[in-house]
Amino acid sequence: MIALAYPDHITPTYYLILAAILFTVGAVGLMLRKNTLVMFMCIELMLNAANLTFVSFANALNDISGQVIVFFTLVVRRRQSVDADDVSALKG
Q1: Ranges of each domain in the chain
Q2: What is the pLDDT of residues 5-19, one digit of tens each?
Q3: CATH architecture observed for domain 12-77
Q4: Model pTM score
Q5: What DSSP designation does 9 have?
C-alpha cells in the first residue's frame, strides 16, 4: 500500500497557488473569447481569485481588513446595455 503524504495544516501557499491558477484561466478566457457572457464569467473568475488572495492573507495575518476588501469587490454596478463592442470606446 502506498502511503500518501498529506499536510497536517494547509498553508496559505496552497490558496495562493489556486488563486494564481484561477486568475490565469480567467485572463486567458477573457483574451480569447468574444461572447459577452463568457467575458463576464472570466472577469468574475478573476475577481474571485483576487478575493481568495485577500482572504488567505487576512487569515494568515489574523487581520480582518482583507475580508472587508472582499465585500467591496463583490459590489455590482448596473448598466442599461451590455455590448462587447463598447471596448472600442475606451481607446480614447
Answers
A1: 12-77
A2: 666 678 889 999 999
A3: Orthogonal Bundle (1.10)
A4: 0.71
A5: S
